[in-house]
Amino acid sequence: MLTPYALSTDGRTTPLGVDERTPLLSWRLRSDRDADAQTAYRIEVTTGGVTAWDTGRVESAENSAIAYDGPTLRSRTRYDWRVTVWDGSGEEAGAAESWFETAILHADEWVGTWIARDPNVHPPFDPPVVDDLTDRVRHLPAPPHLRRSFTLPAKPVRARLHATARGVYEPRLNGAKVGDRELAPGWTEYRTRVLYQTYDVTDALTAGENVLGAVLVDGWYAGFIGFDSRHQAQHYGDAPQFLAQLHVEFADGSTRTIATDADWVERPGAIRYADQLMGQYEDGSRELTGWDAPGYDASDWTPVVIADTAPGTLVAEPDEPVRVTEELTAVSVTAIGADRHLVDFGQNMVGRVRLTVRGAEPGRRIVLRHAEVLADGELYRENLRTAEATDVYLTAGGATEVFEPRFTFHGFRYVEVTGYPGVLAGKDVVGRVLHSDTPFTGHFECDDETVNQLYRNIRWGQRGNWVSVPTDCPQRDERLGWLADAQIFAPTATRNADVQAFFARWLADVRAAATPEGAFPDIAPKVAMLTEGAPAWGDGGVIIPWLLYRIYGDVRTLERSFGSMVAWIEHVHRHNPDLIWRHRTGNNYGDWLQVDAETPRDLLATAYFAQSVALVGAAARALGVDAQPYEDLHGRIRAAFQNEFVEDDGRVEGDTQTGYLLALAFDLLPPALVDRAFHRLAADVEKRDNHLTTGFVGVALLCPVLTKHGRADLAYALLHQDTYPSWGYSIAHGATTIWERWDGWTTERGFQAAEMNSFNHYSLGSIGDWLFGGVAGIEQAPGSVGYRELELRPAVGGRLTRAGASQETIRGRVASSWRLDGDQVVVDVEIPPGSTANLHVPTSDPSSVRDRSGSPVADQLRLSSGRYRFTATR
Ligand code: RAM
After folding, report:
1. For the chain, percent of residues with pLDDT exceeding 70
2. Quick check: 326 pLDDT over 70?
3. Which of 167, 211, 366, 843 could lock onto 219 through a cystine, CB 3.0 to 4.6 A?
């Protein structure tokens, strides 16, 4: 039966706070029959049992992003919805149900005001009396604990808390944390908009006294971010602010709202400071036990001040928040001398440690220092630059104390624990992994352990570097939303996880960071120092919206981005009327971190100019806008590129792998020269004994282009390479994440320059897209949107004897795998209902292909949905 599953509203499962006026309703499809497809659907939306919108039967194969088109949605209201689908036989097939709840839809419903600590009442900091705090942290403020006690006449039947901060907050209610978010409200371009979260707190409230509270810390708003030595912190404001309102409904229909106002009180607690880069300092003896619960005496607390009466632009959180998603146990804990332990988690991770301390005397000082790698058995921390990544706990002296620094995060594999009383047991130190909780639904696996390790490294890089925004790295004083890193890795990211809502939100910051002239930035949200985006960096503002459209059918984000995409190419064009992009190239990084093969920067820039214009043209077509001007411009840039950079023998200026890759992947060569140019590329790889020279920009194209032009063998040779430079080299030297640089560490030279040497950057992990698209062979046909038309082209090769991948697409599950069995290859594929596929069976003998029943079939097959197995001679 054809069955809808994974119902979502605006890309989320049963979201509590939706503030889009026309939310998009989607479902995916599965079926136990082959050649199944949806031919019609019906959506019924009800609220309080009353129908709000009923589409009736709609003859349509579409199962994604159906815009709600009923009466205006009411604020803070639950809507239930049900979808029924009809299959190819016209029979009514499956149905499924879901719901969403609207957020605060009208600005005038915000009655809460921004509150903050009164800077005049007590000093903003209260430094702990210890001698070795650095100047950076010595004056950091102690986070205020904010509270408000109130009395309810009865237990409510429904209660929702809406909360946010200019900073980071942890909501508390009646003695417990509310929800499971970390680092809320997340990082956006705060000058333009701040996200707020909605929590169902019905069960936490009671008749009588209740206490609502929050711990409020600097976060991205006021804390350290980035590397600009002239502007290291307080990018948005000096001190954090909090805003909340709690809506309570009683059985008799009456309501009550408790909001942030002048009646709140505050005081600092055990946390002396908390900063994302520097770490967290906590004094257990100052714990405010019971502060967030009824019955607590807060008479000596200080009234807050109203920091701002205008709510500003508050937007309901549109994607999955940061959460702790996994716990790691130490693979080893080694005592070093009397007072130190070295903990190894066996994995370069992002998050924090939870440390349990037993039987310590009061006032013992325990210090946790973090590092990604070791040098001579000790932490190597030079590459963290000014990020101190150090957490401190002063014991209170209880039988058992648990220290978990909840308002900082570090990128680390190793932790040095100093001052722990007695022997640190493995069970008392836990690695808490956190990241934006995008649903991870894709998977790749093969029978080569190094390739599997590479894939795991790619996934860990995606997790750890997605902390609210896509960042370049999680450990040093940077952690910024670099656009090139994001666009290069984005295709891989879509394979591993559903990243549509995550990217769609971040793209609003990319647009907000564009200059009035139309230049996208290098980084978003935009913090100090960086201006116009460089080639391949600024272009991320064009590439990612297009990718979301192609992968997820996300028309809404494409529409919202289209104006800025056009403005970007017009900006480049305006300053480069001869169509070779030489002017206004920003920081012009070129093929960043390439290996002794500098691709001419004007070539790289012009290739990206052409590509962005091509994508704007494609976007125009998709949106029903006149594409002709962009297609014409693209033709002219292509001609200019050929004229300027391509010789008659197919040589591309600079003669670098990346130069050829750009020319081939972006279709910039005259057809007659494609083979010759490709030959030069392949020859370059071979001449280097199967080594690459590509940096951030070229690397993503390498294996796909080699495979597309019939040299999957070379792509595999690069995949399996384990001498420098290669992915395998880092793995041979213990990498558990993707390194920023091919030579992050080499046997000859040791560590690269500490000024820039992260061991957890995802850019060079962009080969992940090829593991799915090349090795397993899952691609979309040209022109296909949302995996409607598949091109399945598994590539048997290298030392692999089996490989496969699966991913959840907006249609449903797609899978492709192959294995060698003697002189046979067995191929298994799965195509979701409503999709079709061209399958290219990898065989040396096209006449040998058999289907499951043993009947001969062609080696190029057109398949409709279902699960298939084919066997052929290798
Ligand atoms: C580094 C960042 C990032 C890269 C830029 C150019 O500082 O880590 O990865 O995009 O430089």
Report:
1. 99
2. yes
3. 167
Cα separation, 61 vs 833, in Å, equals 10
Q: Output the furthest CA–CA distance in the chain (Å, rounded).
A: 87
Cα(302)–Cα(421) distance, rounded to whole angstroms? 36
For the chain, domains (ranges, CATH) are: 3-102 (2.60.40.10), 110-318 (2.60.120.260), 323-436 (2.60.120.260), 789-873 (2.60.420.10)
Report how far residue 536's alpha carbon sits from residue 541's, in angstroms, rounded to the nearest whole number: 10
Which residues, judged by CB distance below 6 Å to any ligand atom, belong to the binding site of ligand 1? 472-473, 478, 482, 484-485, 589, 592, 756, 761
Question: For residues 839 and 828, what is the distance between their CA atoms, to the nearest angstrom?
Answer: 10
What DSSP letter does each residue of 401-434 carry, written as one string?
EEE--TT--EEEEEEEEES-SSPPPGGGEEEEEE
pLDDT greater than 70 at residue 130: no
Q: Which residues contact 546 (CB under 8 A, 6 or more apart)?
A: 558, 615, 618, 619
Asked whether residue 127 carries a pLDDT value surpassing 60, the answer given is no
Kindly report the protein residue whose alpha carbon is nearest to atom 3 of ligand 1: 472
Strands (E), 713-801: 745-746, 750-751, 778-780, 789-792
Whole-number pLDDT of residue 740: 98
Residue 394 and residue 128 in contact, taking contact as beta carbons nearer than 8 Å? yes
3-state class of 344 per DSSP? strand
Ligand 1 centre and the CA of 439: distance in Å? 26
Comparing 29-38, 71-80, 227-236, the range with the smallest average pLDDT is: 227-236
Q: How many CB atoms lie within 10 A of CB 76?
A: 19
| Site to substitute for ligand 1 among 485, 539, 604, 742, most atoms within 8 A of C-beta | 485
> Cα(93)–Cα(84) distance, rounded to whole angstroms?
7
Q: Whose CA is nearest to atom 2 of ligand 1?
A: 472
Give the separation between CA 810 and CA 787, rounded to whole angstroms. Answer: 7
- Looking from the CA of 194 toward its CB, the CA atoms found within 13 Å total 27
CA of 420 to the centre of ligand 1 (A): 37
Residue 662 has phi, psi (to 5 degrees) of -65, -45
Which residues are designated catalytic? 478, 740
Peptide bond just before 185 cis, omega within 30 deg: yes
User: For residue 756, which atom of ligand 1 is closest to its CA?
Assistant: 7
Ligand 1: centre distance to CA 472 (Å): 6
Looking at 576-670, list the stretches that DSSP marks H as alpha helix, in order from N- to C-terminal side.
601-623, 628-645, 657-665
Reported as a pLDDT band with limits 50, 70 and 90, residue 544 is very high
563 contacts: CB under 8 Å, gap ≥ 6: none
Using the mean position of ligand 1's atoms as its centre, give its distance from the Cα of residue 780 in Å: 30
- In the chain the first and final C-alpha atoms are separated, in Å, by 35
The pLDDT tens digits for 558-573 are 999 999 999 999 999 9
| Spatial distance between the Cα atoms of 252 and 255, rounded to a whole number of angstroms | 9
Closest-CA residue to 212 (of 112, 104, 305):
112
Angle between helices 696-708 and 712-720 (to 10 degrees): 140
DSSP string spanning 781-811? PTT--TTSEEEE-----TT-SEEEEEEE-SS
State the pTM of this model: 0.97
Report which DSSP code applies to 73: P
Q: What is the DSSP letter of 440?
A: B
Residue 220 to residue 185: CA distance in whole angstroms: 10
Helix (H) or strand (E) run with residue 837 in it: strand 836-840
pLDDT interval class at 528 (50, 70, 90) = low
Looking at residue 694, its amino acid is: T
* pLDDT value for 394: 95
Say if residues 874 and 823 touch (Cβ distance below 8 Å): yes
Report CA-CA distances (Å) from 465 to 228, 409, 478: 20, 11, 11
